[in-house]
Amino acid sequence: MSKRKLSRQQSWRVSKIQQERAERAAKRGAAAEQALSAGELGPEREGLVIAHYGTQVDIESEPGHSMRCHLRANLEPLVTGDQVIWCEGQPTGVVVAQLPRHSELCRPDPYGKLKPVAANIDRIFVVIAALPEPHANLIDRYLIAAEAVSIQAVLVLNKTDLLADNPQLKQKLDQLLAIYPALGYPLLEVSSLSGGLEDLHAALRDRTSVFVGQSGVGKSSLVNKLLPGIDLRVGGLSESSHKGTHTTTTAQLFHLPSGGSLIDSPGIREFGLWHMNRDQVTQGFREFRPHLGHCRFRDCQHQQEPGCAILAAAEEGIISAERLDSYRRIIASLENP
Ligand SMILES: Nc1nc2c(ncn2[C@@H]2O[C@H](COP(=O)(O)OP(=O)(O)OP(=O)(O)O)[C@@H](O)[C@H]2O)c(=O)[nH]1
Ligand SMILES: [Zn+2]
């Protein structure tokens, strides 16, 4: 009986939440619909979401000129990087349609469902540094996460200035990182302190990118170098207030003076460190894919089963011992594999 009572209570709560959600959506859309029906808006044009403030977005059609916009009531939530159709208005414009996304950077919500946090990203730059010393395991976690959203990852080794008088560390890092370009992940060596960012400039040009990586590897230092004049620590990326509305920006798009765009937010920087399941991890080792499905046992865990195609490939040297070791460690660290 108590079970029935509970479920009735639960369903009442669910419908109440749904009703509140619908009311909020209606309220949000009302301003947009009013402006549309009043015919006070400019012509429809294409634009880009460069910032996102919960119920409103900043849209830009020419770099450097943006306008705060409401969304039409029937629109799916937008994220930074979305291409849209919008109309200028006073004081705010209206987004009338969302154009298809070619990629989505997603993170799981509290229920494990992947939710987009940025759109149309071309490249994920995984920043590592000479110090704190990188580990294969962590690098591979980032790469798996990039594979899960089908976005090309690029490794950026920062703080190479520290290697000049530490040949031992340099040798260790060279050994650790040698495999990645062979797997199709370009490796850029940079120093945000002593310059030498030309390769990075070139890799960012004509694309939309994000920087991800562990704390302390120098992401802010790099971004501050790439975007002179914007101090990320004081730039209010995570929070800014605009005319009385509650405004927490989830992600902001910056145009780089040397070409290309960067989408950045504290949430995006944490990309890759959240939960993944066994399947995502296995698929995320891109050199495993041609061998998957060829093991003797359909539920092979690629640990020590006879007839395992992954182990056979490792023995033949097609899969590196380091990557196999990293795979096992990541699988072992999963809470619910
Ligand atoms: N030697 C050297 N130090 C650097 C370089 N880039 C950054 N640092 C230092 O590394 C430390 C961390 O740099 P941040 O830019 O704050 O690192 P971050 O990745 O943004 O860290 P979080 O904000 O915690 O995510 C700072 O003390 C920087 O001065 C570099 O190229 N060489
Ligand atoms: Zn197997």
From TrEMBL:
It holds the Pfam family RsgA_GTPase. Its main location: cytoplasm. Signal peptide: none annotated. It is found in: Cytoplasm. InterPro entries: G_CP_dom, NA-bd_OB-fold, P-loop_NTPase, Ribosome_biogen_GTPase_RsgA, RsgA_GTPase_dom. Keywords: Cytoplasm, GTP-binding, Hydrolase, Metal-binding, Nucleotide-binding, Ribosome biogenesis, RNA-binding, rRNA-binding, Zinc. Residues 111-271 form the CP-type G domain. One of its GO terms (molecular function) is GTP binding. Residues 1-37 are annotated as: Disordered. The keyword Magnesium does not apply. It is an enzyme of class 3 (hydrolase). GTP binds at N158, K159, T160, D161, G213, Q214, S215, G216, V217, G218, K219, S220, S221. Its EC number is 3.6.1.-. Residues 119-269 form the EngC GTPase domain. PANTHER family: SMALL RIBOSOMAL SUBUNIT BIOGENESIS GTPASE RSGA, SMALL RIBOSOMAL SUBUNIT BIOGENESIS GTPASE RSGA 1, MITOCHONDRIAL-RELATED. Belongs to the TRAFAC class YlqF/YawG GTPase family. RsgA subfamily. This is Small ribosomal subunit biogenesis GTPase RsgA.
